[in-house]
Amino acid sequence: MLFRRRKPAGYKEKLRELVWPRKGFLRPPKYLMMRILRLTASPHAVAVGVAAGVFVSWTPFIGVHFVMAFVITYFLSGNMVAAALGCAAFGNPLTYPFIWGITWEVGHLLLSRQDQMAGQTIDLAELFHKLHFIELWKPVLEPMLIGAIPPAAVTSVALYVLTFYTVRGFQARRRARLVERARLRLADPAAEMPTV
Questions:
Q1: pLDDT tens across 56-80, in order?
Q2: What angle is formed at CA 144 by the lines to CA 138 and CA 149, rounded to 5 degrees?
Q3: Are residues 62 and 28 in the same domain?
Q4: CA 160 → CA 40, 81, 119, 189, distances in Å?
Q5: Does residue 191 lie within any of the structural domains?
Q6: Residue 189 lies in a domain
Q7: How many CB atoms lie within 10 A of CB 185?
């Protein structure tokens, strides 16, 4: 198999890599950042895509995040790849517990349900097993959806601004390097001539 290790990793090495990856924890975020920066689209399109992906990651509808991000991105003339990367980077198994906790608390605060829910328990396993949308809407989905709007708006606007200016600066530096490289090639054509 291509890219297989010559010496298979042992049990100890697999366990160590599970706790502390060989390439480090910063490599995946750096890769995502560089992938977003290198997209061949306008800074606005890239920033809209990332913001749409982040916005829908706050909603409780996990199975359709990518579809929702693509629809929002399409209507705002954004970049679809940036939307997918925004969804994947912001909404993942490591962040979902925090997102759900925040949306749950903010939703109950906005709906003024803290006093009504005191002492009551919700059997989520039973609700999800039956999959009755009406029964699931009031106690779970409604507060999470209402609670998702404020943090989603704040984070998506903040990430739009951050992504827009970062992508614009990266593309300007890249254009300047390409112009300088072309100027040097035109100034000294003999240096570029291959020797036979």
A1: 999 988 888 899 999 999 999 999 9
A2: 125
A3: yes
A4: 17, 15, 41, 43
A5: no
A6: no
A7: 11
Overall number of domains in the chain = 2
Looking at the domain assignment, is residue 167 inside a domain? no
pLDDT in tens, 123-143: 656 666 666 666 667 667 788
User: What is the pLDDT, as a whole number, of residue 20?
Assistant: 78
Alpha helices (runs of H) in 22-119, residue ranges in sequence order: 27-37, 43-57, 65-75, 80-90, 96-110, 114-117
Q: Quick one: pLDDT at residue 118?
A: 53
C-beta separation of 56 from 68 below 8 A:
yes
Q: What's the pTM?
A: 0.75
Q: Is 105 contained in some domain? A: yes
Q: Say whether pLDDT at 116 is over 70.
A: no
Q: Please state, in angstroms and as integers, the Cα–Cα distance from residue 70 to each residue in 57, 98, 150, 187, following that order.
A: 12, 24, 21, 46
- 80 and 27, same domain (yes or no): yes
* Domain span including residue 70: 23-92
- Among 151, 169, 189, identify where a domain stops: 151
Six-digit token string for 44: 């606005």
The tokens for 1 are 């198999």
